[in-house]
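This entry is set out below.
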Amino acid sequence: MMISILKTLSLFGLLGIIYQDFKERQVYLWLFVSVGIILTITFFQNTSPILYSINIGINILIISIVVSVLFLYTKYILKKSFRDSIGLGDLVFFMCMAISFPTVAFIVLFTFSLFFASLLYAMLKPNLKQSSVPLAGLQALFLFLIIGANWSFHFINLYLL
């Protein structure tokens, strides 16, 4: 029962992120925090505290490496400000994902959400009014679809990987 409530709340939170990021290109911090907490509770309920801590540590390390490479690429190759390359909301969403899934699921979801966002943005770009990429919204859409489909059809337990 509790898991169903958490899944429903997480899906509504993801819908909020999608809507706000597409509409305004900014998302309220409390919405990211709410989704992160709900997904984290779901993860924590499905694992031991030690495994949870190890997975979160590895995931945060992965995000740190990705963001560091992006920072260096932006600064030295693109010669642009880091703030012009990625939004704060996108970075916060990365962290929400990092604390919400075991490492194997996180790597798969994070990687495929970036591919999904790239492909979908390329298709939607001609119809969008703003030139910035709604990355957090597109990644939230990907998670919404995966969590919703997984909840409906029980493909795999994302927390036992």
About this structure: The chain has a mean pLDDT of 91. The CA atoms of residues 2 and 42 lie 9 Å apart. The radius of gyration is 16 Å. The chain is about 75% helix and 0% strand.
